[in-house]
## 1
Amino acid sequence: MKEEHIEYLKEAIGQERVITDLEDKICLGYDSTRLEYMPDVIIRVENSCQISQVLKFANEYKIPVTPRGAATGLSGGCLPVHGGISLIMLEMNKILNVNEVDLLVEAEAGAITIDIDKAANKYGLFYPPDPGSLKTSTIGGNIAENAGGLRGLKYGVTKDYVNSLELVLPTGEIINTGAITVKSVSGYNLVDLVVGSEGTLAIVTKATLGLLPVPKARASMLANFTDMSLAAGSVRDIVAAGVITATLEFLDNVTINAIEDYLNVGLDRTIGAMLLIEVDGYQGAVDAEAEIVKNVCKKNNCTDFHLAKSDEERDRLWSARRAALSSLARVRPSTILEDATVPRSRIVELVEAINHIAVKYGLNIGTFGHAGDGNLHPTILTDLRNKEEGKKVEKAIEDIFVKTIELGGTLSGEHGIGLTKAKFLKLEVSEDAYKLMKNIKKTFDPNNILNPGKLFLS
Amino acid sequence: METKINSIKTQHNKKAKSTSQTRAARVFLKGDDLFACSRCGTCLSICPIYKNTLNEGFAPRGKLSLIEAVVNGKIGFTDKLSEKIYTCTMCNLCTTECPSGVKVSELFRAVREDLIENSKYPEVLDYLKDKIEKAYNITFDTNQGRLDWLKQVPDTDINDYVKPTADVVYFVGCVSSFSPRSFSIPRAIVKILKKADVDFTLLGEDEWCCGFPLLSSGMKEEVGALAMHNIEKVIEKKAKILLTSCPSCFHTWKHEYESLTGKKIPFEILHISQYLLNLVNAEKIKPGKLDVRVTYHDPCDLGRNSGVFEQPRQLLKSIPGVELVEMQTSKKQANCCGGGGNIESLNQALSAKIADSRAGEIIDTKAEIAVSACQQCERTLATALKKRKGDTDYKIKVMDVSEILLESLEG
């Protein structure tokens, strides 16, 4: 970037909001992929008008602009791979109002996900999407990546809750799109196009999101199985019995052993898989559903079954799942967390394939995730400073992706394509569909200034 | 002793010169620890500095990336780096909560030591060091003033309080010794000790700063002589127990002195809240009834950093009528009061913002008294609660655990 461009931006947006210190750029040049790309300049914005000003200028001089929320992404979405401007959205964090009649909440893009949920809780409502990073992540980032979470099977993901958006287009226009009504068919659904577009089409500045009433009761259960196929059989049978669980999580043997190494909470190290199941709703329904879940697990020969009798017990059951990632993270210095997703019926095949791939490359891979919606988190434990091992990791990831697509699945359930999976996108998307996506990008962003280098190979 | 301190100072200066040329950095030894940070961002949701600034450079994750940049040769020990590293309350919540188990505070201390060696540190630390080296305390008063808090009490015979030998030594700490606002704490403590017939003594002007402010700033080498002096003075008293009322003094005595001096400490080290509970349990004192709703704020250096969570709570519960309610965050997850890590002298507004958040947690409990076990926390919280006066229709008093115990004893 030219010095005069930075000077102009300082003049337009304010000296203190335009930052060029190397130390600050280092701190804003990574995300949870741990890859590093430094911006040329950081701009801390506080309103849509400033963003519009920045984008108009950037569009004129073809300067890359990459929006950044809390940078907890796992596909490199906020990394300024081509330098340019890193647009910091954190100060636009107001939760503007909760509408308890229409079940809506309006928030600025920088609002923290959990704060939105907390604001809704005051009215007996909740915001269902619960990505793992919800205590840190911003709603703008969740929308850009179409973040998922543990409750996907019953409650869906971010896209199911976005009613309307305020957007700043790459050419600088500020638009409102979508409707705050339950139904709306006026024109193309731009909201759904922007949700999950990874900050490549427009910058989300404000969102109106749907809420639901907090369930009156819930029941948490844990079941152990000698091998993964029995656990997967239970998952299949639970759904076949007509029970849509709020959460249906599984942990594999590698993950269970990592948790035991770290926390020593008395998990059975010999089991092949553990399921954590939660049903919610009215008490009567919860009791009936819990009974069905129990019978299904028993029929599938679970070696152990627990139903939490109190909140403390529920917390204890869940402690293993909560500790899964951090326990795996402690095994080796680097942790590569993928989110390959297959139809529920193909989970066993994917888990078996992952185990096979681990053996093939001599890698340590722990797998856990959302069995209910087929979204697995194969987690490769490695040391990325070891270049040779790094190459094996690359190959293993590619093998996992190829297998996932073969099983009718998708490359990414909830993390996004971004930078890290861009080279695999064509495994899943046909040449014509790819071309159409590129054309959509061009329509929004003729000069390719907004988050360039993501989704598509440049 | 004067010469001892001075000689260490010169030694240190000499060393600083030679090492700054080669920039032999401690952080270089921490490669693996540094690399373990996965940049997951968990620390962003808990760091009091980040939450109040939304500035990644002040977040643990940002600081670790900067330290890594130093190790990788991308940046040197710059002023900007120094500013970011020193903007920290040292509450240590990030270390406790880090999913990857990164020893964050250890790394921060290492880089502070490097910054000191490279003469990149806040100017205020020079004043601090100067004060401690000249007067052995953190104020500009001479160390003769150590007992002013006691001398101002009428009819006090100082010989009752400073004895040649005693079972117990009470190490008052710089703040409670010199800051009139905190005098009520040591006064309460000595009153209780008298009531319980404890054979105790103060060190008077032989008490030197424990060294914590230097240690946490990265000036470890200056602390050895202070530690040695203090240990020797307590040994001279033939004491079996050393008491502190300041959690930072406690932490330093308990967890740093032996490794700093290489000396085995031959007496027990207790925080006053632990000792007072022992007195209650041994029925040396019997708390009277106080019908009051209280909440307890865990000081970082006593709770998270020294593992003392239960005894102050048990002490409060030993007072009949006291109803103890916990704040939204407590014990290991307790939020900082905003008064830690020199942040008050470096960025007062930021410190006040952090204190205000904690004050909000106190108000939410609807407690009438917020009790803590640290003179610094109590001062910071009292100031923050005062500013929030309009928020509640009742008045919240801030007290030290020793003060509320004394009130119950006096009825």
## 2
Amino acid sequence: MASSNNKTGFKVIKAGILSLIQDLGRVGHFNIGLTNGGPIDKTAFKWANRLNSNDLNSSVIEVSVGGLELQANCDQVIVLTGANMPLTINNQNKELWQSHFVQAGDIIKLGFATEGLRCYLAIYGGFQIGKTFGSTATVCRENIGGLLKGKNGAHIGGQALQVDDFLPCIQINKNTKPELLYLEKSHQPVYTNEITLRTIPSYQQRFFSDLEQRLFYSNQYTVSQNIDRMGYRLTGRKVTSDLNGILSEGICHGAVQIPNDGQPIVLLNDRQTIGGYPKIGSVIGLDTEKLGQLAPGAKVNFEQISMEDANNILHLNHSLFKRTQLHKIN
Amino acid sequence: MFRIEIAGENALIIVFADKINDKAFSLVQQATTLIRQQLSEKVVDLIPSYASVLVQFDLLVIDHFQLQNSLRALLSTLQQTKKQSNEIISLPVYYSKKSGPDLERIAQHTQLSIEAIIECHHSQIYQVYAIGFAPGFAYLGQVNPKIATPRLDSPRLKVPKGAVAIADQQTAIYPNQSPGGWNIIGLCPLDMFNPNQRPHMPIQVGDQVKFKPITEQSFIDLGGTFNDIV
């Protein structure tokens, strides 16, 4: 990989609704309360990097809802994956899930998502951003990650992209231009407005009666207006437990927390690390990433699965991702 | 001495007790150290709390059966000893209806006057049991049962930076604005988490804390603000 050069990069012309620098996320800092961050839709994120032949932990932009506009000041390669968000380069429509060359002066414009909510914009070599606590992942709630705006590299971060931000990238050698690649349509995820969340009964599950559990797994819930990278609040049939708060304990990704109003909250990447609401189970990562693509009003069902099933699903998916080949664009 | 439960697809939780007690807290500290030393290749990260440790692992390296076996073998060596406490750290708090919008809710719940609730909160020493929820968010215990009050029915979307709050017998200071469901009783003007300073936080797990009531003027002089208080 070529060495980093601060002069080449992309300028933010329009920031869009919520555009965040993300790598795979921050690990190893739970002891001081730092959460993971990282891409809500990890599958789309990983494909964006693979389509650029990048290391899978390279920094990309997670664009929620849409509206981002960038200008390149050098030769580069871009890829957009994830939600169905119209992409143009110099007003020419471009396909998602494939890489495209851009040149100095080119304008890259993202419209607004028609299916799904979040896209991943990757460039060759990844955006060259300094790490905070080992990661570039932006966690707004923590003021951690993303572009570091403090003097002398101080950790004043955690902001969404803003107009006039400059995103450095590596320079591409003109003689060894990367190959352009695409992912076959049959391997691309489909984003719908009604999904099933496979859930492992766990944590305080036994403090929810059999009837409450059966009702929870058989009723449909609606995505509320209160959704963010921390968690998705759902509305629907009230779930009641025999507990009125518990001793605060560690919370894992995907945990389904039931506060006293009985409306479930599925906790995502920017969740709090410790909390004291009872939890009825945990949604597997492959399904939280689908949940994170839903907008308010979408419908979800919970389906109970065993830890062993979850294990198999994850391994099969991991193997499928590794085996799936990308194709060259002629 | 402990039980191991499934938390999620790549997480187990080791539970030492369901209520706060010094023995469980000591076991949590010992277990955290042991797991970090012995199982660092399989374990991604740990969340120690009052009486439990959440263990996040890499499913591509180890499955939950193997990890449970490793944990049981490792933790069978734990000793039931009482942990020695560290230093006492004083933290200033401006208690008032203006800075503590849930004082009235607690007064209704406990049938105590607001003055009595404030007095009760700052007249004892608290143990730092855990850090989490948000960077630098320290869980302190235990609050006198007289003023213990359950969380709000639905979490607030915005709790201000510095909010001193109670949930049941726990108390804490919100280091940054965030959503949260605890009852706010006052504001602390100090930075509870600063990524540019070392140490990042004024307090550590195992420390003891005493709250010192201050006036509105001292609160402002120490850099406190009333932004975002609802």
